[in-house]
């Protein structure tokens, strides 16, 4: 169902009768002159209403009369049926021809045998010229595509560089009203009619009705605008003017409003002059932007290369991220092991930093020193303890200074006894970063020691008493 064939745009003839052409990331490798020659080829190859898809960094350039852009971020264009399609398309085989070859070809065409006349077509043209109103078919930007009838009374070529734009060719008195009606019709998609517009024509004044109608059908003309000019008889205009003057004379309020409207028209004229100046500046800016677009196309190639490099770097970062995640999992497992180890030993442990601020503690420590999770970061001297050990902070400072551990047996207010061991806290880099204090409960051992001492004391007393009684018995026996 798919046909594959090699195609060289600058050497082979184009395919025809296509509905869709995709040409992505090819034009950026061609110069601007060659791009201008290829756009008419795409237009020739596509059917009416065909679609052209270009790359994200490519545009149709100056071929706005051949294609129109569709909405969206993608570079999608629809083929337009314009008068330019009737001109001779420059095929790839003629890209390298000289100017003399083109002149010879044109002269050969001129001497070719003319086709037989079509009477119906000629009659239709005669009727259109004699009995149909003057009209022009333009794009939504005002560029003239087709002229019907005699429009010389309303349009004339502007001085300077040739410009087939409706607003640039409008005669005196027509430009402002026509521009306002045109933009309103395009913006709101409605038919706008202007009545009794005065147009200056060769020193005289002509009154004309103007109808601006957006074209919705047929499909090939969708998006274009038809402007129709209809002359108004002078007699009816004169009556309308007299009637308007009589009404104005009897209504002072209308007169004041007319003056305000006239002032508004003057202001509008100034604004439109400024807009025309701005349009000229925008045209020159557009030319600059086209040259910048060519530079951006080359920059896009560099960015594509940079994107590939970034993708490779991203893959490396993902690998590093996986390694870091594995280390994080290992560290979390180690932390859990240490926590369970400290809890299983049933030894109260307190970690202080080098400023004797609470860093961490086990749950058994809270039974000796009144600690809660919110005490992390507080000095150990500010926390209440049940130990009878007022020199705890001083001994911790001494351990930080001498790096020699201290071990003492300390009693508590609830008659418990603890072995307090203070040692320096060493990091993997062998740096002292605080102290570690452990509290081992030796209450049972202390109670046993006291019981043993009491038993020993009792035994010593009994031995002394028995020895004294034995001595007295010996004396009596003698």
What is the alpha-carbon Rg in Å?
Answer: 51 Å
In oligomeric terms, what are we looking at?
Answer: single chain
CATH architecture of the largest domain: 2-Layer Sandwich
- Spans of at least 5 consecutive residues with low confidence: 96-113
In percent terms, what proportion of residues is strand?
Answer: 15-25%
Give the overall silhouette: elongated
CATH superfamily of the largest domain: PAS domain
Helix-strand makeup class? alpha+beta
Q: Tell me the number of strands.
A: 14
Determine the fraction of residues in helical runs and give it as a percent range.
Answer: 40-55%
N-to-C SSE string, H for helix and E for strand: EHEEEHHEEHHEEEHHEEHEEEH
Instruction: Report the mean per-residue pLDDT as an integer.
Output: 81
Major sheet size, sense and barrel closure: 5 strands, antiparallel
Find the CATH topology of the largest domain.
Beta-Lactamase
CATH class of the largest domain: Alpha Beta
The total domain count is 4
Count of helical stretches: 9
What separation lies between the terminal Cα atoms?
142 Å
At a glance:
By secondary structure, the chain is of the alpha+beta class. Helices cover 45% and strands 20% of the residues. The protein has helices at 32-45, 99-110, 119-131, 166-169, 175-188, 234-249, 252-345, 392-402, 443-477, and strands at residues 18-23, 46-54, 67-69, 76-79, 134-138, 144-148, 192-201, 204-214, 225-231, 348-352, 358-361, 406-411, 417-426, 432-441.
